[in-house]
Amino acid sequence: MGTFYITTPIYYVNDEPHIGHAYTTIMADVLSRFHRLTGDDVLFLTGTDEHGQKVDEAAKKRNLSPQAHADEMVMRFQALWEILNISNDDFIRTTEARHKRVVSEILQRIYDAGEIYSDNYEGWYCVPDERFWTEKDLVDGNCPDCGRPTVKISEKNYFFRMSKYQDWLIEYIETHPNFIRPEKRRNEILGFLRQPLGDLCISRPRARLEWGIPLPFDEDYVCYVWFDALINYITAPGYIADDARFEHWWQASCHLIGKDILTTHCVYWPTMLKAIGVSLPKTIMGHGFWLVDETKMGKSLGNAIRPLDLADKYGVDAFRYFLVRDMTLGQDSDFSEEAFVQRYNTELANELGNLLNRSVVMAARYLDGVVPEVDGDHAALDALKAQTEETLNAVGKAIDAMNPNAVLDAVWRLVREANRFVEVQAPWHLAKDACKRAELEVTIYALLETMRQLAVLLFPVIPSKACEIWRQLGAKGSPEDVHLDDLKSWGGLDANLQVAPGDPVFPRIEEVNVAEEKAQEDLISFSEFQKLKLRVAKIDAAERVKGADRLLQLQISLGDEQRQIVAGIAEYYEPEALVGQQIVVVANLEPATIRGVESQGMLLAASDDNDLTLVTPDSEISDGAEVS
Ligand code: ME8
Fold first, then answer.
1. For the chain, which domains are there?
2. Which is nearest to 114 in space by CA: 280, 275, 224?
3. For residues 509 and 515, what is the distance between their CA atoms, to the nearest angstrom?
4. Pocket around ligand 1 at a 6 A CB cut-off
5. What is the pLDDT of residues 89-124, one digit of tens each?
6. Model confidence at 610, in pLDDT bands (50, 70, 90)?
């Protein structure tokens, strides 16, 4: 029996959780449960990152104190984790006393050790990311990470001597191939470390930001939110508070994170740990992003997917299954509801759900619902047993490799073999021939036993459905009580149990529904809307189009460019009255020739049966301004 300590990032409480947060947390949950399946002792930690400017600003917008805001937002995360069946053992909030104490203590220790100094700082700050950048990092003056504008700041601050650990860190990463995974992320960090590494600014003047843990050696400053946040990973298992407990978990630690926070975890954090004399986490696993129409999803981008909407619509377990199944750890994945439904119907409803249904229904119909007592050695079972063995081995390896996706691949090889087995054995034919009774019993027992194995193997991903499968098999206890090694001796399903067929575990979803729903509501996605470029334009000149009573030809200015457009508004507006007026135009419409006149865009107007009026800005704004 081993030990496994897994963490998720602690999420900012500035906004509601979205599908990206749900993904990391579900993955960590699935990995935790797989490790419990192997018999490991597991500590699974998640939590919230509550200090810093981002949270402070979100609280101000709501006219709340940052603490009151955090207290409210944290409940949304906790409630969601409850609904998504997340089995975390601890939940840490950075505003808790246990955490603030450890952060203060670490700051004081490394300050006393001369690892922190003060200096005047000049840099470019990205407020949403809470990150400082040097001028050469910026891309067109914007944050190189998120592309948003930065602000220049000059002030006295405290610095952690991170630069002195650069060579040590490179060597550590090079000699510990499993430290940063997958390899692509490791190479990214090694690439980053080819540039000289600066020292890390770890303070914020209180005059600018109150909301943070005070520096114990200078009360005019609070601690930089990342320096505070990363420490959560050692606070929870008992750093300073309980050495033995801390050691027990820390040597088996794994940080699961999104690739957006690779540098903080793979550069800042290891150097911080080195400075306080703590060994590095065993593994940092950087997964990819869920994209929507190929762009990163996020609340600020307006394309965030609310996890609860999907879980409500299709069920928590199906949602968990899809997230684990559809993203290969490390790579990005494009989220689509259509793909979700298709996978659900093929894999969950047909391949798994039907297999269970057929197995228990046939047991009920042909054997009075009683699990038969059989001798396991039977030639007809060879292929199925061989597949079970292969699956169990592959599952063990995939858990070690922290690859739940590969676990599901292996499990599905067994599901498919079992479906093939039913077709080959055709119990419906065996049942008609009294001489084939023994073979019928062997066949049905094998199916039920395979379902039992599948319930155990799938419990980490679909915990409540696995329990439902268990219940329909009439099995005792819970699939959670069985370990991977127990499955190796085939035939663990007790004879004489009474099966209990029930509703389909994964009822089919009518695929048309998804398309129909969209069509009925005539909805477009946010990204479809984003394709439309609306801009403000000023009319510089207007005249009638010869030979066309309804058309005006307008010369417009978009600030940086002049255009000509043709508009069907002559019955409502005199050309002279329009000059100098600001209007809204679709700026990326394909040019068209109307009555021999080229039109490079289209203006917006509202109309009813009697009238037409131009859409105009409420007050003067620069020509060319974007409308969104
Ligand atoms: O960064 N796809 O918090 P955060 C997949 N507080 N995962 C995604 C995602 C997406 N589109 N978007 C977000 C912070 N995530 C800091 C962490 S840790 C000491 C401090 C997930 O609320 C992914 O795990 O911005 C990512 O790393 C995390 O949410 C960022 O959450």
1. 336-488 (1.10.730.10), 525-627 (2.40.50.140)
2. 275
3. 12
4. 9-12, 20-21, 23-24, 49, 229-230, 257-258, 260-261, 289-290, 296-297
5. 999 999 999 999 999 999 999 999 999 999 998 889
6. confident
